[in-house]
Design brief:
Blueprint lengths: L8 H77 L2 H7 L6 H32 L5 H8 L1 H6 L5 H4 L7 H25 L3 H21 L10 H35 L2 H15 L1
Helix pairs in contact: 1-3, 1-4, 1-7, 1-9, 1-10, 3-4, 4-8, 7-8, 9-10
Length: 280
């Protein structure tokens, strides 16, 4: 008795085709990861080179006095950023729930709220800072500095979430675009105005580029929302980092704060230029 077996050749092709498609998908993902890593590496290099070139050119164009005032604006911006960010971007990348759209919407809402608070703080601190350094013109510079958080509040955090799957390309392109625009805006405005205000507009240009690139490369729509179920976890993660931000600011920037107050703004500009030579 002869048994008739099904010898349809299409059945033999199915496993082979599936394996081939799976291999192609894996190769595509690996290629995308390598491309993203290259973009991130280039972005990091561009960021460092732009920071160095920007500071060198500003020191050359503005001189010690205006450079000192510019350093105060950078100090103020760094302080508010460090004590409000709280690692929300890192939470989105590292948290078990970070891929949840509700968590991302909450992180984006928190970013918008903190940027609004930074804007209000800058307007509130403008006159006290000017009085602290005995430089009345500093008040308007601090107010112009508020442009940066107003824009940055609408950053799309999908570029951060994508790093959960090792997709660093959007972050790399965001660094390239933002640092290039900040360099161009700061130097051009400094050359035109010879004023420390150029730094405030440069930071605003940096924020604008980051927001535009983040929305252009996002894979999800931009949403804002509050998720009570995940708020406790984010709060416990963020509070220690906020305190750490204050410590980091004092350790890294406290010397400039004291020099600007005790020795004067011009001396702060000279000191900032010397630090540039030491660090680079």
């Amino acid at each position: 008795m002869v048994t008739a077996w099904n010898t349809d050749p299409r059945e033999k092709l199915i496993p082979q085709n599936f394996a081939f498609e799976t291999e192609m998908e894996e190769n595509s993902e690996q290629s995308s990861t390598r491309t993203g890593m290259k973009a991130f590496f280039v972005g990091s290099v561009v960021s460092l080179a732009s920071a160095l070139l920007r500071y060198v050119l500003l020191a050359r164009i503005l001189g010690p006095d205006q450079l000192g005032l510019a350093a105060i604006l950078i100090l103020t911006s760094s302080f508010l950023e460090l004590i409000t960010e709280g690692g929300i971007a890192t939470y989105l990348i590292q948290s078990h729930d970070g891929d949840n759209p509700k968590v991302q919407a909450m992180v984006q809402l928190i970013n918008l709220v903190r940027c609004a608070l930074m804007t209000a703080a800058l307007f509130a601190l403008a006159r006290p800072l000017a009085a602290f350094y005995a430089r009345p013109e500093l008040a308007d510079g601090v107010r112009w500095l508020a442009l940066s958080p107003v824009i940055y509040g609408f950053l799309h955090y999908d570029v951060k979430r994508l790093q959960r799957t090792h997709d660093f390309g959007p972050e790399g392109w965001m660094m390239i675009g933002s640092e290039t625009l900040a360099l161009a805006a700061s130097v051009i405005l400094a050359a035109i105005t010879h004023s420390f205000y150029a730094v405030a507009f440069g930071l605003a240009g940096r924020s604008l580029a980051m927001v535009l690139v983040s929305h252009a490369l996002a894979k999800r729509p931009f949403h804002l929302g509050f998720a009570p179920a995940y708020w406790g976890s984010l709060r416990r993660y963020s509070w220690p980092l906020i305190a750490d931000g204050l410590v980091v600011f004092i350790g890294q920037q406290g010397d400039r704060l004291l020099i600007g107050k005790l020795l004067g703004v011009r001396e702060l500009g000279i000191y900032a230029a010397l630090l540039l030579l030491i660090y680079y």
